[in-house]
Amino acid sequence: MRRAAPWAPLALLVVLVAGCAMPTMPGWVPLVGKKKDKDKDKAPVVAATPARRAVTPGSEMLPAPVIGEPVTKPVAPEAETVADRIVAVVNNDAITLAELQESIAMFRHENKQQVTVSDEELGKQFLNRLIDSRLQLQEADRDKVVVDDTELNEEVTERMKRFGAKTMEEFDALVRAQGLTMDAVKKRLRDTLRVSKVVRRKVTLRVSVTDPEIARYIEENRPKLETGLTYNARHILIVPQTDTDAGWEAARIRAELLREQVVQGADFAELARQNSRDASAKDGGDLGSLHRGELSQNIEAQILRLRPSEMSAPYRSQLGYHIFRLEARESLDGETLQRVRQQVREILFREKYDARMQAWIQEIKRRAIIEVRM
Fold first, then answer.
1. Minimum mean pLDDT among 99-108, 302-311, 354-363: which range?
2. Using CA atoms, how far apart are residues 81 and 22, in angstroms rounded to an integer?
3. Smallest Cα–Cα separation from 373: which of 77, 64, 160, 32?
C-alpha cells in the first residue's frame, strides 16, 4: 500500500483540485453538456474492483446520505502504521486513516476560521463522504468510463493557470517542491473527470424540466416571485405647519393644488424640488429603484395600485400628505417573464437533480458491501 501524501502539500492539493469536486451540479444548471463544473452540488457510486488507495479529489465536498447501516467492526491491533490503518472497506476497496485525515485537513484549510466542530465529528462526516466517493469511482469502473489524454491535459492546464504557473515545467517544479508528483496529480484529476462523466450519464441526462412545469410553478408562486421585481416612483411630501386640524387641512389643500398643477401639465419633478419636505426633493422626488417590502406596507400599497405615469390622490400619513407618481414597474411579462422562467427552470432542475442523485446513491449503496472499522 502507498502512504498518504505528507501534510506539507495540502495547500497545493486544495488549489489543484479546486473546482473539480465531484459530482457537481453544472455551473449553469440546465446546460447538461457543460464540460467543466464548479464545486457546488454533489453526487454519488459501486462495483467490485481491486483495492484502490487513492483518495478521490473533491470527495470531501460530496453529500453523505447514509442508506442503512454499514457493517461496523472494532479495529484489532495490527502491525501496520497508524496512517496505513484501514478505516473502511467498500467492495474490497480500502479507505485508510491517512486518506480520511487528508480530507479533513483540506476541509479545514479551505474553511479555516469557519470550522467549529471537532476532528472526531468531522471524521464521521468525511468517512461517509469518502465511502460515497469510492462507490462513485467504482461505478465509473463498472461502466468502463475513460478519460482520454486530451481531456486530462486540458484539465491539468486549467489547474496550472489557477496555480499561477506560466509553463508546464514551472508547474511540475512547484508540484515536486511540495513533495508531490505530476503522476499523482494527474491520477486525481483523471478520477474526478471519470466520476463527472458517470454522474452525467446516470443523473444529469435523466433530468428534464418541461414548460408546463415551469408555468405551474410560476402561478403557484407568483406573489413570492413578484417580490423580487422592482418599481420606480416619485414623491412629494407636504408637512403641516402646525399639528392642528387647521394645519392638517391646509396641508391637504396645498397637496391638492400641487396635484392639479401636474394634471394641467406642470413638471412633477420640479414641483417636488420646490415644495417637497422629503429628503428626495433634491432629486425631483425620485425614490429610486425599489423592491417590494422596502417601504412601509401602506405607502407601498398606494404606489403599486397605480399604473405607470399615473399619480395618486393626496395620502395622509403621520408625516404629512403625500403625492406619489409611479414611473415604472416590472411585471411578469416580456423580458422579465423570460428571465423568471429561466430562474424557475434552474430551481426545478436542481430539485429534480438532487432527488435523482439521492435515488442513485441509494441504489448503488444497496448493491455494495461496506464495512466500517472505526
1. 99-108
2. 30
3. 77
Give residue 222's pLDDT band: very low, low, confident or very high (50, 70, 90): confident
CA 179 to chain centroid, in Å, comes to 34
Among candidates 326, 321, 325, 327, which has minimal Cα distance to 256? 321
- For the chain, the domains span 10-207+347-372, 230-329
Residues 6+ apart with CB under 8 A from 55: 4, 95, 99, 102, 103, 130, 133, 188
How far apart (Å, rounded) are the C-alpha atoms in residues 112 and 107? 8
Angle at the Cα of 145 (from 65 to 37), degrees rounded to 5? 60
Region label for 176, one of left (φ > 0), alpha (ψ between -120 and 50) or beta (otherwise)? alpha
Distance CA 133, CA 55 (A): 8
Alpha carbon distance 151, 19 (integer Å)? 15
Hey, which bits of 107-256 come out as E strands? 230-238
- How far apart are alpha carbons 132 and 104 in whole angstroms? 15
Question: What is the C-alpha separation between 107 and 115, in angstroms, rounded?
Answer: 9
Fold of 230-329: Chitinase A; domain 3 (3.10.50)
HEC sequence for 315-341: EECCCCEEEEEEEEECCCCHHHHHHHH
| 291 DSSP β-pair partners | 230
Taken in order 119, 124, 129, 133, the sign of the CA dihedral is positive
- The fold of 10-207+347-372 is Triger factor/SurA peptide-binding fold (1.10.4030)
Query: Span 194-207, mean pLDDT?
Result: 94
pLDDT tens-digit map of 298-327: 999 999 999 999 999 999 999 999 999 999
pTM value?
0.60
